[in-house]
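Checklist before submission:
- one chain only
- standard amino acids only
- sequence pasted in full

Submission:
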Amino acid sequence: MKTEHFAKHNDPGLISRFLRLSEDRRRRMTIEDIRPECRDIHSRIVGLLHEVYGAQRGMRFSKSIHPDGFEFFASVVQELAHLKRKINFLEIGSFEGVSMSVVSALLDAQGILGRLVSIDPYFEDGYQEDHPATGSVRKDSTETTMSAALKLYELLGVDVSLMRVTSDVGLRGLLCADQEFDLIYIDGLHNGMAPTVDFGLSMGLLAEDGVIILDDWPWPDIIGLKALCDQHMQLIAETPDIAAYRRLPER
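Returned file contents:
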């Protein structure tokens, strides 16, 4: 049954429809769809984004600041609050710093903000990624973007440790340092073996009862990882393109 499920969802046409669905849904949702106790946090981050990146950009930012993505992360943080400890957060691929800001602000509001670590190489000329629906896309992940993200963290008042290396190098370094994280968000390169390598190394860093998030799971090189998580982990939150899973104790 699981194999059939994976085969059905690995169809390129269906993947393309999933991606379009997430964008359509994102445009329909409003601030009213965000739980009332989190609306001030959302408004504050939107204001800082406009201050750093320019108000003319409107809401053209990472999915995590749009109401459905923001609500997703609020649900994840609410689940982590039950652990009753400081939450150490690792993000692979922070780009403009939006999701890092959202998660750190939500954790702080719950009084459970721990260490924040970002792995992002911020290449000199950005990098190329093959989007399954729109084709080749140039990602502007450069030093200029890095400076803006760091400014955003400063204005938000959070201390983010940036590892400016590729994800495989950064994750191996954290493993060698015997680090552990309660929440890991995988949002690095979406093509080839990179998502699988990121996932495998991240599982070595994830606390026994921690949560791992897969970004853009309908992409062809990521959807197999979601099928694996569906079978062996506990789904705690999902949108049409992001999914969060809790690690289950070893039997």
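Reviewer check: Residues 115 and 133 are 36 Å apart (CA to CA).
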